[in-house]
Amino acid sequence: MIEVKETVFDRLGKRVRDAIVELGYSIPTPIQEKAIPPLLDGRDLIGCAQTGTGKTAAFLLPIIERLSDPKIPHNKPGHPRALVLSPTRELAAQTCENHVKYAKYTHTKYACVFGGVNQYSQVKDIRRGAEIVIATPGRLMDLMTQGEVYLDKIEYFVLDEADRMLDMGFLPDIRRVLSKLPVKKQSMFFSATLSPEILKLAGELVKDPVQVMISPETPTVDAINQKLMCVEKNNKDNLLCWLLEENPEWDKVIVFARTRHGADRVLKKLLKKKIAAAAIHSDKTQAQRTRALTGFKSGKLRVLVATDIASRGIDVPEVDLVVQMELPLETESYVHRIGRTARAGKGGAAIGFVAPEERVLVKAVERYIKKSIPVDRDQPYHVDVAGKDKGGLPTAPWIKGKKFRELAGEGQKGGKPHRRRGHGRRQPDFGQKARFS
Ligand code: AMP
C-alpha cells in the first residue's frame, strides 16, 4: 500500500490546495512547514527568512484560506481585510503574481498598489472590493490620504522584508500605517535579519508571536557553486563579457553592480557586445523596470544588471548564474544576491569578482557565510590577490570592528576613506563614494 504523507498543505481547503498542486508544490518548504499551522490558528508571527525560502506562500496561503471562508460576508469596497506591505514595487508586483496563482480557485479580490505608475487601475481594484491589498508604503499612504482606502477593517497584516523597509527609510511611513490599523488583527512580520532595531519594531506590532528562523546558511546557499575570480578593476567588464561568450549555455544571468552608475556602465558594455541585457535600478522608471524584468523572465534578455535595492526580493526561476562585479560592502547582501540562483532548492552558480584592493571584502563575506570561497584562476584576466591563493586572506589589522561602509568613506565628512594614523599602511581604496540604489 502506498503511504501518502500528510503535510501542512492538508490543513488548507481544497480550492487553495488545488491551486498549489497545479504549481507543483508537493512538499512544503521549511518556513511553510513551521509558519502555516500557527497562522491558520490565528497566531502572530515573526519570520526571519529571506526570499527564495518560499515565505510568500507561507503567509499568503493562510490569508487566502481565511479570506475565502464563505461564512464571512464580503467586505465593504475601500475597506480591505488584509494588507501586505512590501518595500519595493518589484516585490509588491511579485507577491501579487503569487496571489493570483494561489487564489486561482478562490477568486479572492486583490489590489496591487505601488508608485511610479498611474493609480487609476489600482483605485478601480480597490473600489471593486479588493479584499487583500499588496502595497508599497508611499502609494498606499497617497490613497489613504485621498480617501480611496481605509485600514479600519484590516484583519491580517503582513510587514514583508522589514529590514529593507528600514534601510530604505520607510520607518515613519510604517508607523503611520500601523497607527491606522485596528488593534485586533493578526500580524506577520518578516525580515531577513533581526537587528535590535528590527526587533523593536516587531515588538510594536506582534503579540505573543510564534518565531520562525530560517537561517541564511540553510541549504539554499549551500546548493550554490560559489567562486571568486581575481581581476584588476578595469578588466572586470572584459571578464564578464568573456564569461558570457565562453558559456553560451548560461541563458539567465543576473549581474550585481554596487552603484547605478556601475550598472549602467556594465550594461553599455554588454549591449556593445550584442548581448541582450537590461538594467534595473532606482533611476529607472517603473515601466523600464517592468519591461526589463518581463524580458528577463521570458528569456528575451539573457542578462539583467541590477543594484541591491532594485533587485531585492525578485524571484526569477532558474537563474543560471549570479555575477557580482564587486562583493558587497554589507555582507548580508552577499547571501541575498547569490540567493537569486538556487531558488526553492535548485542548484546554481555564483561568481564574485575581486580586485586586489578589494580583498578585505572577501574575508568579511567568508566569515559571514562561514566558509572559504575558492578562486577560479582559469580565466584570461587573473591577477594574484595577496593571500587568497595561499588558502585564505590576511585580516587587515585596521578592519577589526569597523563597518565596511565607514571604510568605504560612507558617513564621513567629505567621503574620504578612513585612514588610521601612524600605521604606515594605506587603507584599501574603494574608489568613489558608493551610492546605494
Ligand atoms: P519566495 O521565497 O516566496 O519568493 O519563493 C521562492 C520560489 O519558490 C517561488 O518561485 C515559489 O513559487 C517557489 N515555491 C514556494 N513554495 C514552494 C514549494 N512548496 N514547492 C516548490 N516551490 C515553491
CATH topology value of the largest domain: Rossmann fold
> Quick one: CATH superfamily of the largest domain?
P-loop containing nucleotide triphosphate hydrolases
N-C termini distance: 56 Å
Helix-strand sequence? HHEHEHEHEHEHHEHEHEHEHEHEHEHEHH
Word description of this protein:
The protein contains 17 helices and 13 strands. It is α/β, with parallel strands linked by helices and 437 residues long. It folds into 2 domains: 8-213, 3-Layer(aba) Sandwich (Rossmann fold); 218-415, P-loop containing nucleotide triphosphate hydrolases (Rossmann fold, 3-Layer(aba) Sandwich), CATH 3.40.50.300. The strands form 2 sheets. The chain has a 7-stranded parallel beta sheet with strand order 3-4-2-5-6-1-7, sandwiched between helices. Strand 3 (110-113), helix 5 and strand 4 (132-135) form a beta-alpha-beta unit. The longest helix is centred in the N-terminal third of the chain and has 14 residues, at 89-102. The model is unreliable at 389-437 (pLDDT under 50). The chain binds adenosine monophosphate. Adenosine monophosphate (AMP) is lined by residues 25, 27-29, 32, 51-57, 315, 317, 343-344.
